[in-house]
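PROTEIN DESIGN WORKSHEET
SECTION A - STRUCTURE
LENGTH: 159
TOKENS:
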């Protein structure tokens, strides 16, 4: 399967969008995921893929493409993953897929969060999802316990 421009769905023609939707539906039925492939950033730019400045890595499989960005914070180096589905006609990325992407690309033992900002800070210009992956060994001061039955809450929110 081949996919065109990752960014603006308006840049795809109708035939391409319908083919992508058909391919995606067959992948969804077969539960196919495919191996992650790395695309050199220079090659991605030359092929017209929408890769903003600062991207340090670009990978894709049969369902998603992921861009990596590093950010220095007081918690250490945090990696932002921008996740996009190839099939722009069916928005959405289930939680289980985000967890699998985080595990396969950043590591099973790393903590990640998805942010839902205050309305005044909302940026919703593209059909993509951002995961912020913390350094190894980082843990949040709150979360679900292992069996999901309750919350372990700590009031000390210092990093």
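SECTION B - SEQUENCE
RESIDUE ASSIGNMENT:
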């Amino acid at each position: 399967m081949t996919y065109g421009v990752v960014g603006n769905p308006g840049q795809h023609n109708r035939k391409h969008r319908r083919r992508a939707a058909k391919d995606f539906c067959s992948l969804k039925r077969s539960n196919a995921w495919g191996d992650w492939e790395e695309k050199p950033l220079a090659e991605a730019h030359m092929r017209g893929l929408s890769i903003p400045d600062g991207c340090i890595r670009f990978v894709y499989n049969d369902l998603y493409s992921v861009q990596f960005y590093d950010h220095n914070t007081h918690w250490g180096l945090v990696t932002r993953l921008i996740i996009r589905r190839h099939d722009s006609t069916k928005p959405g990325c289930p939680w289980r897929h985000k967890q699998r992407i985080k595990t396969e690309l950043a590591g099973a033992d790393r903590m990640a969060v998805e942010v839902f900002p205050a309305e005044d800070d909302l940026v919703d210009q593209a059909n993509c999802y951002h995961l912020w992956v913390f350094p190894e060994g980082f843990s949040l001061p709150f979360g679900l316990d292992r069996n999901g039955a309750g919350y372990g809450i700590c009031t000390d929110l210092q990093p």
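SECTION C - NOTES
The helical segments are 14-30, 41-46, 95-106.
Strands lie at 37-38, 57-60, 64-73, 76-85, 112-113, 129-133, 142-144, 151-153.
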